[in-house]
Amino acid sequence: MKNGITFVMIAKNEEAVIESNIQSILQFSGSDFEIILVNSGSTDRSPYIMRKYSDEHTSVTFTNSRKPGPSAARNEGLRLANLEYVFFLDGDVELENGFIAAALDEFKNSPNTCAIAGKLAEEQYTPNYSRIMNTVPDRYNRNAKTRVKRFGGIFLARREATINAGEWDERLFCHEDTDYAIRLGMLGHLIVIPEKMGTHKTVKYENRMTEMIRSGYFRGVGLFVRKYILKPTIWIPFLISHRYLYPVLLMLLTMIWSLLFHSYLLLGILAIAMLDITIGLARGKTLKSWLLSHYVAPAQVLVGFLCGNKT
């Protein structure tokens, strides 16, 4: 396998930011590299921009994903990867050059390490990307070198490790990065280092819960739990860390009550719901946000868990 880094950048409707993010990779001044740009069903000008860079630079390859979803797009990029390391990036992330040198040093000093991530800053824009509304210096608070069990979809990995881990699971349409990191972690160490690896450029999170529910995001959470149901050491910490556990348990408690006490079904559901809503309002939450997060979202989680991809 040749020395160097394959950058796999996937994108869906990122026309506002993808050009500067591609340029940030082209400015990489290190070992040999290649860039694989994968369009994941964009309906804006993103494919045109990516193809333009492919036409202008011999180190850049453009392709379309044959299936929808981030996993399929990353698999498409992996099939074209030829170099020793693979850096997974999203189209809305601008690369920070200094991270790669620090990560490569870590790989050389730690042969058991198979993937490395770093600090990820964030710029939150207005919906038309005309101005920055908020900045976050580090989304994950990575202040020290640490061995972890999982991380998100932006990381540098040994190509050999990605071959041994297999393809990204195309059945998962959210938390597919968590799933892939878990499988990489079964092969070696996952390390985070306190070095900035990039900046995530996104619109400000407004009505985020509503959008996540509309997209079926929480059904994807249920799919993830379904996959690892026989490994509670994975899915229980996962639900806790994402604050999914309490509302899901609440929904399960309501279902169990209805099974045990058929004649008191409505009374039991109302009693549990009223108590829970009272707690939410006492904590300063709006009724809408509490209903969405504690009833609609966990219902989607259960549908995803029970029905899988059949819904």
Task: Describe, in plain words, how this protein is organized in 3D.
The chain has 311 residues and is an alpha/beta fold. It folds into two domains: 2-203, Spore Coat Polysaccharide Biosynthesis Protein SpsA, Chain A; 208-310, no CATH class. Helix content is 46%, strand content 23%. The protein is built from twelve helices and ten strands. The protein has helices at 18-26, 46-56, 70-79, 97-109, 159-165, 176-185, 208-214, 217-227, 232-241, 245-260, 265-282, 287-307, and strands at 2-11, 33-39, 60-64, 83-90, 93-95, 113-125, 132-136, 146-148, 155-158, 189-203. Strands 1, 2, 3, 4, 5, 6, 7, 8, 9 and 10 form a ten-stranded mixed β-sheet that branches. α10 (245-260) runs antiparallel to α11 and α10 crosses α12 (287-307). The chain is globular. The chain starts with a strand and ends with a helix.
Q: Can you give keywords for this protein?
A:
311 residues, alpha/beta, Spore Coat Polysaccharide Biosynthesis Protein SpsA, Chain A
User: What is the global morphology?
Assistant: globular
**Largest sheet, strands/sense/barrel:** 10 strands, mixed
> Which topology of the largest domain does CATH recognise?
Spore Coat Polysaccharide Biosynthesis Protein SpsA, Chain A
The class by helix and strand makeup works out as alpha/beta
Query: How many β strands by DSSP?
Result: 10
Q: What CATH architecture label of the largest domain applies?
A: Alpha-Beta Complex
CATH superfamily of the largest domain: Spore Coat Polysaccharide Biosynthesis Protein SpsA, Chain A
Gyration radius from CA atoms, angstroms = 21 Å
SSE sequence, one letter per element: EHEHEHEEHEEEEHHEHHHHHH
* Total number of domains: 2
**Helix content bin:** 40-55%
Number of helices: 12
Beta-strand percent range? 15-25%
Overall mean pLDDT stands at 87
Name the CATH class of the largest domain. Answer: Alpha Beta
